[in-house]
Design a protein that fits this description.
This protein is 40% helix and 8% strand. It has 192 residues and is an alpha/beta fold. It has two domains: 146 residues, P-loop containing nucleotide triphosphate hydrolases (Rossmann fold), CATH 3.40.50.300; 33 residues, no CATH class. Bound molecules: zinc ion.
Length: 192
């Protein structure tokens, strides 16, 4: 099951989820590699590491994973939180009472919040969107929108990712997602 749990609120789960999503999407990481290239780049890094303490050398040698480039179109979209194949769900409150809202209605605030308070908690977030004393949740409309979005073809031909911040705010609406999680569309990752 393509479902990853990255820990609880306040533990840095969100920055970790974003880093992971960037890694999955980075075009440099996902370039088809020839084995000779991998070997030569490892050889280079061990040359560069020759004057560092031995622990650093070992680290280089045991980390064959390519790092994200921070310069490809995917990385730039991730930095701006506008990658069309990376979707976010988080607790929200209606802007007017009785209004059917989805997380996309708060996407501008969400992007600002993550950039300003990557380690913020749900209280910080609800303050940020002026929820006052209203209880946030991930509602049934959002669940329907998740199902709709993840059943679309990926915009850029790669993975589709849903990052859900604080899934405990799903409550009973979460039952709607069970089938999607059990039988996810092709190349779809859930990070909760
Ligand atoms: Zn990149």
């Amino acid at each position: 099951m393509p479902l990853l749990f990255l820990g609880k609120e306040g533990s840095g789960a969100l920055p970790l989820a974003l880093a992971f999503a960037q890694y999955v999407m980075c075009q440099k990481v996902n370039l088809p590699k020839k084995s000779s290239e991998t070997t030569s780049s490892l050889f280079e890094s061990s040359l560069f590491g020759s004057e560092s303490p031995s622990s650093a050398k070992e680290e280089t040698a045991t980390l064959p994973l390519e790092d994200v480039c921070n310069t490809c179109p995917s990385c730039l979209k991730m930095a701006d939180m506008v990658h069309p194949d990376v979707h976010f769900s988080y607790p929200i409150v209606p802007k007017k009472s009785g209004q059917a809202i989805i997380c996309t209605d708060y996407i501008t605030e969400w992007r600002e919040f993550i950039k300003s308070y990557p380690y913020g908690n749900v209280y910080d977030w609800l303050q940020f969107i002026n929820a006052e004393n209203k209880q946030g949740n991930i509602n049934v409309h959002e669940c329907n929108d998740i199902i709709r979005k993840l059943n679309l073809k990926s915009f850029e031909g790669g993975y589709k990712i849903l990052i859900m911040w604080l899934p405990e705010y799903l409550k009973e609406a979460g039952n709607k997602l069970l089938k999607l999680i059990e039988e996810p569309p092709e190349k779809t990752l859930f990070i909760w």
